[in-house]
């Protein structure tokens, strides 16, 4: 049976079953009544059938009984529940835990299906939970399987419809979904691993379908999971009739935020026979003019055919012969990442194929300071600081900030406010501290965070807590808060300086351009925040800081218009001829 025909059959069966259920006069839909908290499924008073019946739905007693859960409450099944003809979860949650079990079956015209009707429809299975579905599981919502002892079976098939399967893995095996039909897994796989240390080659069976896996997950999302080693990733694969999660190897695109240099690396091995690659950016953060072809880097041989490079795509294919990127080797793509803007869009995606026809999603890793105003958080001890470590950030004139945590991971006792420390001037007023929010405002003045400026906030985060912090801040002249970046790890140290001041006279002007031009290709410059040699990246830094004057760690003057290289001579002549120069910023 073809994949297309199987999908048509599965969808037709589901529609027919639901339509049949809707036509049935014998069917009674029982609606879960609690509206908040967690309430017991197996309590009569929690259900209403029609206008009069307050019973737990039981299709073995009253043929066709179905269950509908559609409130903000969670319907909890902690012991075996009566069988039902159908389960509809509509913007709500059903939790099966402990020794709880539930079975659906075709009864008096009911469909026997489990339907997660919306994106916020949730079915959670924990402990020794078991769910037996008489026909199909149809989900645009979320199915979360916790641990190795849960089980789910569906007689007629699995239809994901863009929903999410959460694999919450706690051991060397995981709770299995089985079906005698086919499985269409067109959706998202959410990976959450705890209690074990994953290593290369580890595999977990997720879904076994007798009639085969029609479509695999479109995206794998990893959350609350320790990082794997370099070049390792969680991969969704098919082995026979089983969809699996494995720890495998892939290539890595390394992106330097300061210089824009991009390289494709193979840190873990084995060698990959690369037939094509594509580097994509939906936000247009690629630099087509700086990208270098595999043909020109002297490493990957010749015969590569390039698609026209754009700000959204840099791609090549090698149709004539093989190229193997061996373990620990790398291939440079030049300055393929656009620098000089902040905050920069870090949305690059790397895909590549092998000569065997396999398609891989690579890993993209960014190095260097984040091009944004950043909240740094050390998750080991909860300490935090905010600062500007990017030469491309237009130094924020801070008037307020807020740190938010939906899971209430903030701690008030160790919070070192700007009001008490004086690190950002005077006039700061701290709001009452909450586990969900810490905030300060300054109604008297603003404080400019120049390059290299950091301000400690003390211990504000629960050590090893859930990393869900959000960072908002306000600047002078703007009413709408900006969204900053949160970076977890060691808190960096920095010395305030003036990027682009290549003659070290505390101002970025035309003289610094001359120093850069005369030293292009050399080994370094004063106040050079980019590593190694003098390149066009140093020009981008000069351009981003043109007009700034270093007058203190926390105060830099306003930014002036920046000339392009071709207009430097013209601009230098303007004082002599008394002309007014207006620069049109090119994008």
From TrEMBL:
Domain Ice-binding protein C-terminal: 561-583
Signal peptide range: 1-26
Keyword set, alphabetical order: Signal
Domain of life assignment: Bacteria
Protein name: PEP-CTERM sorting domain-containing protein
Organism for this UniProt entry: Aeoliella straminimaris
């Amino acid at each position: 049976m073809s994949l297309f025909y199987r999908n048509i059959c599965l969808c037709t069966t589901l529609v027919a079953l639901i339509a049949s259920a809707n036509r049935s006069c014998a069917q009674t839909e029982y609606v879960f009544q609690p509206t908040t908290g967690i309430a017991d499924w197996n309590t009569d008073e929690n259900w209403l059938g029609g206008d009069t019946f307050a019973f737990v739905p039981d299709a073995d007693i009253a043929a066709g009984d179905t269950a509908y859960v559609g409130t903000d409450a969670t319907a909890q099944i902690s012991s075996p529940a009566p069988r039902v003809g159908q389960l509809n979860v509509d913007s709500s949650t059903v939790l099966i835990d402990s020794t709880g079990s539930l079975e659906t079956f075709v009864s008096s015209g009911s469909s026997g299906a489990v339907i997660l009707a919306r994106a916020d429809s949730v079915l959670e299975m924990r402990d020794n939970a078991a769910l037996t579905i008489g026909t199909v599981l149809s989900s645009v919502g979320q199915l979360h399987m916790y641990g190795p002892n849960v089980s789910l079976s569906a007689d007629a098939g699995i239809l994901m419809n863009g929903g999410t399967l959460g694999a919450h893995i706690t051991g060397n095996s995981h709770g299995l979904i089985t079906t005698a039909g086919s499985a269409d897994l067109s959706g998202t796989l959410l990976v959450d691993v705890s209690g074990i240390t994953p290593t290369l080659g580890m595999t977990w069976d997720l879904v076994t379908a007798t009639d085969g896996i029609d479509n695999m997950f479109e995206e794998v999302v990893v959350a609350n999971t320790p990082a794997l080693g370099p070049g390792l990733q969680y991969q969704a694969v098919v082995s026979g009739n089983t969809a699996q999660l494995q720890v495998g190897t892939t290539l890595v695109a390394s992106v330097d935020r300061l210089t824009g240099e991009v390289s494709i690396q193979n840190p873990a091995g084995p060698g990959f026979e690369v037939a094509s690659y594509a580097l994509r950016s939906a936000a247009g953060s690629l630099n087509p003019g700086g990208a270098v072809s595999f043909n020109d880097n002297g490493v990957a041989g010749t015969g590569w055919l390039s698609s026209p490079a754009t700000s959204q795509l840099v791609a090549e294919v090698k149709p004539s012969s093989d190229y193997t990127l061996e373990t620990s080797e790398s291939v440079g793509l030049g300055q393929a990442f656009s620098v000089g803007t902040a905050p920069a869009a870090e949305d690059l995606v790397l895909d590549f194929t092998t000569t065997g026809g396999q398609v891989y999603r690579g890993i993209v890793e960014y190095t260097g300071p984040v091009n944004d105003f950043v909240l740094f958080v050390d998750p080991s001890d909860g300490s935090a600081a905010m600062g500007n470590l990017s030469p491309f950030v237009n130094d924020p004139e801070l008037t307020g900030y807020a740190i938010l945590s939906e899971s209430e991971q903030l701690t008030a006792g160790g919070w070192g406010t700007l009001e008490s420390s004086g690190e950002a001037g005077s006039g700061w007023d701290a709001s009452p501290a909450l586990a969900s929010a810490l905030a300060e405002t300054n109604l008297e003045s603003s404080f400019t965070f120049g390059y290299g400026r950091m301000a400690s906030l003390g211990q504000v985060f629960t050590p090893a807590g859930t990393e869900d912090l959000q960072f908002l801040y306000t600047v002078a002249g703007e009413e709408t808060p900006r969204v900053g970046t949160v970076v977890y790890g060691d808190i960096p140290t920095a010395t305030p300086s003036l990027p682009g001041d290549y003659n070290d006279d505390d101002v970025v002007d035309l003289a610094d351009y001359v120093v850069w031009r005369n030293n292009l290709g050399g080994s370094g410059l004063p106040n050079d925040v980019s590593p190694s040699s003098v390149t066009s990246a140093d020009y981008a830094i000069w351009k981003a800081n043109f007009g700034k004057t270093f007058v203190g760690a926390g105060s830099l003057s306003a930014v002036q218009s920046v000339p392009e290289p071709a207009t430097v001579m013209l601009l230098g002549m303007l004082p002599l001829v008394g002309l007014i120069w207006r620069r049109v910023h090119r994008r």
